[in-house]
Write a structure and sequence with these properties.
Strand content: 15-25%
Order of helices and strands: EEHEEEHHHHEH
Largest sheet: 6 strands, mixed
Radius of gyration: 28 Å
Length: 213
Protein backbone atom coordinates (compact mmCIF):
# COMPACT_ATOMS: atom_id res chain seq x y z
CA UNK A 1 0.00 0.00 0.00
CA UNK A 2 1.12 3.55 -0.77
CA UNK A 3 1.01 5.51 2.51
CA UNK A 4 2.66 8.82 1.66
CA UNK A 5 3.70 10.67 -1.49
CA UNK A 6 5.87 13.78 -1.50
CA UNK A 7 7.41 15.91 -4.22
CA UNK A 8 10.31 18.27 -3.47
CA UNK A 9 12.69 20.59 -5.29
CA UNK A 10 16.19 19.14 -5.42
CA UNK A 11 18.04 22.47 -5.24
CA UNK A 12 16.87 23.41 -1.73
CA UNK A 13 14.52 20.65 -0.55
CA UNK A 14 11.41 22.85 -0.80
CA UNK A 15 8.28 20.63 -0.62
CA UNK A 16 6.18 21.21 -3.74
CA UNK A 17 3.27 18.79 -3.26
CA UNK A 18 2.25 15.95 -0.97
CA UNK A 19 -0.52 13.57 -0.05
CA UNK A 20 -0.90 10.90 2.63
CA UNK A 21 -3.10 7.93 3.44
CA UNK A 22 -6.43 9.26 4.68
CA UNK A 23 -7.37 6.06 6.51
CA UNK A 24 -6.44 6.80 10.13
CA UNK A 25 -5.76 3.13 10.88
CA UNK A 26 -3.35 2.83 7.94
CA UNK A 27 -1.88 6.25 8.54
CA UNK A 28 -0.21 5.35 11.83
CA UNK A 29 2.51 7.87 12.68
CA UNK A 30 2.65 8.99 9.03
CA UNK A 31 3.39 12.56 10.11
CA UNK A 32 6.69 11.33 11.57
CA UNK A 33 7.59 9.80 8.22
CA UNK A 34 6.54 13.01 6.47
CA UNK A 35 9.10 14.87 8.59
CA UNK A 36 11.69 12.25 7.60
CA UNK A 37 10.80 12.91 3.98
CA UNK A 38 11.32 16.65 4.42
CA UNK A 39 14.74 16.04 5.98
CA UNK A 40 15.62 13.67 3.16
CA UNK A 41 14.78 16.34 0.57
CA UNK A 42 17.33 18.65 2.20
CA UNK A 43 20.04 15.97 2.14
CA UNK A 44 19.71 15.02 -1.52
CA UNK A 45 21.61 16.82 -4.25
CA UNK A 46 22.79 16.41 -7.83
CA UNK A 47 25.35 13.82 -6.70
CA UNK A 48 22.70 11.56 -5.14
CA UNK A 49 21.55 8.35 -6.90
CA UNK A 50 18.57 9.10 -9.12
CA UNK A 51 16.75 6.02 -7.79
CA UNK A 52 17.05 4.62 -4.32
CA UNK A 53 15.16 2.61 -1.70
CA UNK A 54 15.49 3.51 1.99
CA UNK A 55 14.46 1.32 4.91
CA UNK A 56 12.64 3.16 7.69
CA UNK A 57 11.05 1.07 10.43
CA UNK A 58 8.42 -1.28 8.97
CA UNK A 59 8.23 0.71 5.73
CA UNK A 60 10.28 1.59 2.67
CA UNK A 61 10.91 4.98 1.11
CA UNK A 62 11.45 4.88 -2.66
CA UNK A 63 12.59 8.03 -4.43
CA UNK A 64 13.13 9.02 -8.04
CA UNK A 65 14.96 12.19 -9.17
CA UNK A 66 14.28 13.78 -12.54
CA UNK A 67 14.47 17.34 -13.90
CA UNK A 68 15.73 18.74 -10.58
CA UNK A 69 12.71 17.34 -8.73
CA UNK A 70 12.58 14.45 -6.22
CA UNK A 71 9.52 12.18 -6.13
CA UNK A 72 9.22 10.24 -2.88
CA UNK A 73 6.80 7.51 -1.82
CA UNK A 74 6.42 5.62 1.47
CA UNK A 75 5.15 2.05 1.07
CA UNK A 76 4.66 -1.08 3.11
CA UNK A 77 7.53 -3.52 2.61
CA UNK A 78 5.33 -6.03 0.80
CA UNK A 79 4.39 -3.49 -1.86
CA UNK A 80 6.07 -4.20 -5.20
CA UNK A 81 9.22 -2.17 -5.74
CA UNK A 82 8.60 -2.32 -9.47
CA UNK A 83 5.14 -0.80 -8.99
CA UNK A 84 6.51 1.86 -6.65
CA UNK A 85 9.04 3.15 -9.16
CA UNK A 86 6.57 2.93 -12.02
CA UNK A 87 4.20 5.02 -9.90
CA UNK A 88 6.93 7.61 -9.29
CA UNK A 89 7.81 7.77 -12.98
CA UNK A 90 4.16 8.34 -13.82
CA UNK A 91 3.98 11.21 -11.32
CA UNK A 92 7.21 12.69 -12.64
CA UNK A 93 5.97 12.74 -16.21
CA UNK A 94 2.65 14.40 -15.33
CA UNK A 95 4.14 16.85 -12.81
CA UNK A 96 6.79 18.03 -15.25
CA UNK A 97 4.23 18.51 -18.01
CA UNK A 98 2.09 20.68 -15.72
CA UNK A 99 4.62 22.59 -13.63
CA UNK A 100 8.08 21.99 -15.11
CA UNK A 101 8.64 25.63 -16.02
CA UNK A 102 7.40 26.93 -12.66
CA UNK A 103 9.40 24.69 -10.31
CA UNK A 104 12.41 27.01 -10.06
CA UNK A 105 10.30 30.15 -9.51
CA UNK A 106 8.17 29.26 -6.47
CA UNK A 107 9.16 30.20 -2.93
CA UNK A 108 6.25 28.92 -0.80
CA UNK A 109 6.08 25.28 0.38
CA UNK A 110 3.45 23.15 -1.34
CA UNK A 111 2.88 25.67 -4.13
CA UNK A 112 1.49 22.86 -6.28
CA UNK A 113 -0.71 21.22 -3.66
CA UNK A 114 -3.50 20.95 -6.26
CA UNK A 115 -1.44 18.17 -7.88
CA UNK A 116 -2.84 16.02 -5.08
CA UNK A 117 -5.84 15.35 -7.34
CA UNK A 118 -3.64 13.58 -9.88
CA UNK A 119 -1.66 11.80 -7.15
CA UNK A 120 -4.86 10.29 -5.77
CA UNK A 121 -5.89 9.04 -9.22
CA UNK A 122 -2.45 7.55 -9.91
CA UNK A 123 -2.31 5.94 -6.46
CA UNK A 124 -5.64 4.26 -7.11
CA UNK A 125 -4.41 2.89 -10.45
CA UNK A 126 -1.21 1.52 -8.94
CA UNK A 127 -3.03 0.03 -5.97
CA UNK A 128 -5.93 -1.69 -7.72
CA UNK A 129 -4.85 -5.24 -8.65
CA UNK A 130 -6.93 -5.32 -11.83
CA UNK A 131 -5.53 -2.01 -13.03
CA UNK A 132 -1.97 -3.09 -12.22
CA UNK A 133 -2.21 -6.03 -14.60
CA UNK A 134 -2.83 -3.59 -17.43
CA UNK A 135 0.34 -1.57 -16.82
CA UNK A 136 2.42 -2.89 -19.71
CA UNK A 137 5.14 -0.32 -18.98
CA UNK A 138 6.22 -2.37 -15.99
CA UNK A 139 8.05 -4.85 -18.19
CA UNK A 140 9.07 -2.60 -21.08
CA UNK A 141 10.09 0.85 -19.85
CA UNK A 142 11.21 0.51 -16.22
CA UNK A 143 14.82 -0.40 -15.54
CA UNK A 144 15.70 -3.46 -13.49
CA UNK A 145 14.61 -2.48 -9.99
CA UNK A 146 16.69 -5.23 -8.42
CA UNK A 147 19.77 -3.11 -9.09
CA UNK A 148 18.44 -0.08 -7.25
CA UNK A 149 20.45 0.70 -4.14
CA UNK A 150 18.83 -0.06 -0.77
CA UNK A 151 20.00 1.97 2.23
CA UNK A 152 18.87 2.79 5.74
CA UNK A 153 17.32 6.26 5.97
CA UNK A 154 19.04 7.05 9.29
CA UNK A 155 22.43 6.47 7.65
CA UNK A 156 21.50 8.76 4.78
CA UNK A 157 20.22 11.55 7.04
CA UNK A 158 23.26 11.36 9.34
CA UNK A 159 25.61 11.27 6.38
CA UNK A 160 23.91 14.23 4.76
CA UNK A 161 25.96 16.82 6.66
CA UNK A 162 29.18 15.10 5.66
CA UNK A 163 28.07 14.90 2.04
CA UNK A 164 27.23 18.61 2.06
CA UNK A 165 30.66 19.40 3.53
CA UNK A 166 32.40 17.28 0.92
CA UNK A 167 30.34 18.94 -1.79
CA UNK A 168 31.42 22.38 -0.55
CA UNK A 169 35.07 21.30 -0.52
CA UNK A 170 34.71 19.92 -4.04
CA UNK A 171 33.26 23.23 -5.23
CA UNK A 172 36.12 25.11 -3.52
CA UNK A 173 38.71 22.87 -5.19
CA UNK A 174 36.98 23.38 -8.53
CA UNK A 175 37.19 27.17 -8.11
CA UNK A 176 40.87 26.92 -7.15
CA UNK A 177 41.49 24.75 -10.20
CA UNK A 178 39.84 27.32 -12.45
CA UNK A 179 41.91 30.12 -10.91
CA UNK A 180 45.08 28.09 -11.37
CA UNK A 181 44.17 27.41 -14.99
CA UNK A 182 43.57 31.12 -15.59
CA UNK A 183 46.89 32.02 -13.94
CA UNK A 184 48.72 29.43 -16.06
CA UNK A 185 47.10 30.82 -19.21
CA UNK A 186 48.11 34.37 -18.28
CA UNK A 187 51.65 33.22 -17.53
CA UNK A 188 51.90 31.48 -20.90
CA UNK A 189 50.73 34.66 -22.63
CA UNK A 190 53.31 36.74 -20.75
CA UNK A 191 56.05 34.25 -21.59
CA UNK A 192 55.10 34.35 -25.26
CA UNK A 193 55.19 38.17 -25.29
CA UNK A 194 58.66 38.16 -23.68
CA UNK A 195 59.95 35.71 -26.29
CA UNK A 196 58.51 37.79 -29.13
CA UNK A 197 60.03 40.95 -27.65
CA UNK A 198 63.44 39.25 -27.39
CA UNK A 199 63.30 38.08 -31.01
CA UNK A 200 62.22 41.54 -32.16
CA UNK A 201 65.09 43.12 -30.20
CA UNK A 202 67.64 40.79 -31.84
CA UNK A 203 66.22 41.57 -35.28
CA UNK A 204 66.48 45.32 -34.64
CA UNK A 205 70.07 44.99 -33.35
CA UNK A 206 71.10 42.95 -36.41
CA UNK A 207 69.39 45.41 -38.72
CA UNK A 208 71.22 48.35 -37.16
CA UNK A 209 74.52 46.45 -37.18
CA UNK A 210 74.43 45.63 -40.92
CA UNK A 211 73.15 49.12 -41.71
CA UNK A 212 76.13 50.71 -39.97
CA UNK A 213 78.71 48.36 -41.47
Amino acid sequence: MVLLTMIGRLADGLPLAATMQEDEQSGRNILDYQNQGKMLFKKLNNMSPTRCTLETGPYLFHYFIENEVCYLVLCEKNYSKRLAFSYLEDLAQEFHSQYGRKVSTVTRPYSFIEFDTYIQKAKKVFTDSRARRNLVTLNTELQDVQRIMVQNIDDVLQRGALLSELDSKAQHLSMQSQEYKKSATDLNKTSMLVKCAAVLFIIIVLFLYFRVF
